[in-house]
Give the backbone structure.
Amino acid sequence: MTLDLADPIRAGERRALARAITLVESRRADHRKDAEALLADLATDRREAIRIGLSGTPGVGKSSFIEAFGMMLVEAGLKVAVLAVDPSSARSGGSILGDKTRMERLSREPQAFIRPSPSQTQLGGVARRSREAVFLCEAAGYDVVLIETVGVGQSETVVAEMSDLFVLLLAPAGGDELQGVKRGIMEQADLILVNKADGDLKAQATRTCADYSGALRLLRKRPEDPEGFPKAMTVSAMTGANLDDAWFTMQALADWRRSEGHWDTRRAGQARHWFRAEVEAALLAQLDTPGARQQMAELSEAVADGSVLPAAAARDMATFLRKQDAPL
Amino acid sequence: MTLDLADPIRAGERRALARAITLVESRRADHRKDAEALLADLATDRREAIRIGLSGTPGVGKSSFIEAFGMMLVEAGLKVAVLAVDPSSARSGGSILGDKTRMERLSREPQAFIRPSPSQTQLGGVARRSREAVFLCEAAGYDVVLIETVGVGQSETVVAEMSDLFVLLLAPAGGDELQGVKRGIMEQADLILVNKADGDLKAQATRTCADYSGALRLLRKRPEDPEGFPKAMTVSAMTGANLDDAWFTMQALADWRRSEGHWDTRRAGQARHWFRAEVEAALLAQLDTPGARQQMAELSEAVADGSVLPAAAARDMATFLRKQDAPL
């Protein structure tokens, strides 16, 4: 039944794409089976977009940037998909992209597709669904997939691990605030864009950009980076200044990685990473059945009151799971 | 056979204790079985030491501190065990405590026991063995177990999770360096000791201590802490200054936690934590057999070249493991 979705997706029908993403987000076992059949069918096409991870905390103007950047791409004849990865969306009562009015023009474009984050609290679950949604967007013929995150906790790493390029969007700031950017995220970024380089903030944005350029020079250069990368630039989502330069820079980096073989190496490495993550999650899911949870709770109490040592209790739990022969 | 170790350990024989720790460190299945039988036998005694986690980077004078602090405790009639938890020891070619000459006096004391870190690269393995070594030291009647780490990567968290009190040893520093101490470790510390408060460095140590006191006040107070904790103090391992105060402070905190019920709650929580960690490690160990490794490698390549998607490959792997019926 759901295989009927494959051809409409190939034809780029947005409703079919939206339904397919809903399918991969479902936790129902029958939905999961259908989802995997659909994904396997589409995998033979091997359509490829440029996957751009985009991180930026609230207040840096991320929605405005995506709106302006996305419109520029659409006007250049490209198809653009925007996916949000936000593990906290379930808690905050809605995705950051739930409010599509913040991307009013882009959301009305036939060549654009915007999808909020799935409402799940577990980052692991969000990660799988997001990866599969990216894949579905590629199958639907999108040229650029923007994967955006607010960068809470580990979500930036998750997004970086499913992107071809990783972009960090920042606001103009005083020199002291530079330290507020986590070192880990700086190391993952291919491109830092200092937004709001317009009006009164322009000079400050330029200074902030210079600060980040300096900081990036101190970080180790990766073998998959050409000379001059990672790079920091100023942009303005409001005036549109330098948005074309930013896109040109992203393309130049992508082209270099493709020609040097780093592109495929990186995608293959990411696929291996996600495979292992899925296997480990499946193994640990054995602890998530009602019977296993009860057994864990009982043994946990015995361990807590000191009558059984952790290693011995773990052995008992392993015996219990083996007898269960629970489906992995 | 190894149950013969139980009574000598109860009698406090150091050679039996050393052999038992070697046994819990062994990876051989028959050794593991013997180790668990021994631990279960000794668990009935419920002897309890005060477990003090101690972290400090090289250069802060950790060995000198342990030597001086340990000697003070021994001279007060207490039995002192020192265990090192250092996941990197295998790489650096020997434990930080391998060189016992740095604790020359303490290592000659009959009331003291010093044990280097097991030479394993995996922190998970080191953690289990260290916890069981702590337990064996308690069974052997030690009053104080010092668990020391150099604080690379996650080792501080591992040590904090097996300690009743967590002490951070630091050297006098300029005000700017305060930011170099990771926030996470500051939040775990019950007591910060600024060492080298002697000679030319005394004034600087006092200033550093004041800086840390200020920083600690900004951190959230935990319900298991009495008024004034976490606390920062100056000490000198060289002159012995304030070592008695430090010990008095540790005892006061321990007494407060015992009387308020936090002591048992904390130990129970740690036991539960380690139980879950052991169960998860056992589940993931299914991937560590030769057959599973080969299957993972084959599926990983199929995923990397794009012919199979991660979720589908993970499902294949789960089927493989179920057929294996591998011992957990």
